[in-house]
C-alpha cells in the first residue's frame, strides 16, 4: 500500500529535526574537546577542524538539512516548516543529558515563547511563488529592493566582524547569532538558485553553461563558510540551550524577510494574518529577551582582571613614578645630614 506524500514529508521533517537537534550537541562536544586540548577557544584557532566528533556533528547537520529539503517536495511548507522547531526541543533535551546544561524556569519559558512566536510567523507569513528556472530567480534577485537588502546585509556583517565582534563577541550571544542569521538569509537564496540549476541540468538542460550558475555556487560556499564559522564561535562561547533557540528564531525571521523583499510579498491575506504576524514578533522579542538575560548571567561568572576604583587607588600603596622616587630619596638624604649635624 502506497504511503501518502504528506506522511512521507512529515516523516522526513521529523527525522530532519532529530538529526539537526542532535548535531548541535555533537558539534558542541567536539568544540569542548578541542578547547580542552588547546586550553583556549577552539573556534578562535579553528582547532575543531581536527576533531572527528566535530565533523560527525557537521555531517549530521547537513544530513538533516537534506532530509528537510526533500520533505518539501512531498508535503506543503505549512506542514514541514513548523516541525523545524522540534530541533530546538530535541537539542535542549540532549544538551541537558550529554552536556549537563540547564536553562532553569526562565530559560525554558524564553525558549518556548521564541518557538511559539516563530511558528506563528511561519504559519501566517505570505507564501513564496514557485520558481522554475535560474533566469526567473535571477530576475527576482535583481529587483532594486533585494539588491539593497543584500548590500545592507553584507555591509552590516562586515562592520560587525570588524568592530562589534572584537568588543562584544565573547559577552553577547546576539553578535555571533546575528551574523549567522543575516548571512544565512542570503545563503538560502543562493542554495535555492544553485539547486534549481542542478535539477535542470539533471533533467537534460545544462545550466553550467551560464556564468550565473558558477556565481551562485561561489556564493553558496562563501556564505556557508561564514555562517559555519560564526555559528561555531557562538556554540563555543555560550550554552547550546541559549544559542539554538535564538539562532532558530533569528534565522527563520531573516529568511522570511529576505523572501518577502525578493518576491515583493509583504501583503498578507486579511487582517487576521497581519495581526498574527505582529503578535508573533512580539512573542519572539519577549522570548529572546529572556534567553539573552540567561546568557548575560552565565557570562557574568567569567573571571575578569580586577579593576580598582578611584577611591581604592587613593587608599592603597601605588608604585611611585621615577620623578617622585628621586624626590623621596633626596628628602631622606637631607634629613639624614641634618640629624648628623645636630648630633
Rg from Cα: 27 Å
The percentage of residues in β strands lies in under 5%
State the shape: globular
Low-confidence stretches: 300-326
Query: What's the total helix number?
Result: 14
Largest sheet: none
Task: Give an overview of the whole structure.
Mean pLDDT is 77; it is low at 300-326. The chain has helices spanning 5-38, 42-45, 52-71, 77-80, 86-99, 104-124, 134-141, 144-168, 173-202, 211-237, 240-262, 271-299, 310-315, 322-342. 78% of the residues lie in helices and 0% in strands. It has 14 helices and no strands. The chain has two domains: 1-101; 107-299, no CATH class. One of its GO terms (molecular function) is magnesium ion transmembrane transporter activity. Keywords: Membrane, Transmembrane, Transmembrane helix.
Compact description:
With 343 residues, the chain is mainly alpha-helical. The chain folds into two domains: 101 residues; 193 residues, no CATH class.
Please specify the SSE layout and strand pairing.
Elements: H1 5-38, H2 42-45, H3 52-71, H4 77-80, H5 86-99, H6 104-124, H7 134-141, H8 144-168, H9 173-202, H10 211-237, H11 240-262, H12 271-299, H13 310-315, H14 322-342
Main location: membrane
GO molecular function: magnesium ion transmembrane transporter activity
Organism: Syncephalastrum racemosum
Amino acid at each position: 500500500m502506497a504511503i501518502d506524500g504528506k506522511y512521507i514529508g512529515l516523516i522526513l521533517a521529523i527525522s530532519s529535526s532529530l538529526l539537526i537537534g542532535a548535531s548541535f550537541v555533537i558539534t558542541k562536544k567536539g568544540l569542548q574537546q578541542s578547547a580542552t586540548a588547546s586550553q583556549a577557544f577552539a573556534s578562535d584557532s579553528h582547532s575543531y577542524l581536527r576533531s572527528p566528533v566535530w565533523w560527525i556533528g557537521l555531517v549530521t547537520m547537513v544530513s538533516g538539512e537534506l532530509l528537510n529539503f526533500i520533505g518539501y517536495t512531498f508535503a506543503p511548507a505549512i506542514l514541514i516548516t513548523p516541525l523545524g522547531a522540534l530541533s530546538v526541543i530535541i537539542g535542549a533535551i540532549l544538551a541537558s543529558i550529554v552536556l549537563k546544561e540547564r536553562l532553569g524556569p526562565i530559560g525554558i519559558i524564553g525558549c518556548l515563547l521564541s518557538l511559539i512566536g516563530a511558528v506563528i510567523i511561519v504559519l501566517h507569513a505570505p507564501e513564496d511563488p514557485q520558481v522554475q528556472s535560474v533566469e526567473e530567480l535571477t530576475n527576482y534577485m535583481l529587483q532594486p529592493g533585494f539588491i539593497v537588502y543584500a548590500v545592507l546585509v553584507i555591509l552590516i556583517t562586515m562592520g560587525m566582524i570588524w568592530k562589534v565582534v572584537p568588543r562584544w563577541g565573547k559577552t553577547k550571544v546576539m553578535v555571533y547569532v546575528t551574523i549567522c542569521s543575516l548571512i544565512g538569509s542570503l545563503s538560502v537564496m543562493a542554495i535555492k538558485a544553485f539547486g534549481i540549476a542542478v535539477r535542470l541540468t539533471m533533467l537534460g538542460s545544462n545550466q553550467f553553461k551560464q556564468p550565473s550558475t558558477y556565481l551562485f555556487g561561489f556564493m553558496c560556499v562563501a556564505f556557508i563558510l561564514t555562517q559555519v564559522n560564526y555559528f561555531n564561535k557562538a556554540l563555543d562561547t555560550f550554552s547550546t540551550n541559549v544559542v539554538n533557540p535564538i539562532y532558530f528564531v533569528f534565522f527563520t525571521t531573516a529568511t522570511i524577510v529576505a523572501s518577502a523583499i525578493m518576491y515583493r510579498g509583504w501583503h498578507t491575506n486579511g487582517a487576521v494574518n497581519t495581526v498574527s504576524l505582529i503578535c508573533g514578533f512580539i512573542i519572539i522579542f519577549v522570548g529572546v529577551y529572556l534567553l539573552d538575560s540567561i546568557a548575560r548571567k552565565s557570562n557574568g561568572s567569567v573571571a575578569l582582571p580586577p579593576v580598582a576604583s578611584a577611591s581604592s587607588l587613593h587608599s592603597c600603596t601605588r608604585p611611585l613614578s621615577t620623578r617622585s622616587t628621586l624626590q623621596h630619596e633626596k628628602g631622606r638624604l637631607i634629613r639624614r645630614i641634618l640629624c648628623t649635624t645636630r648630633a
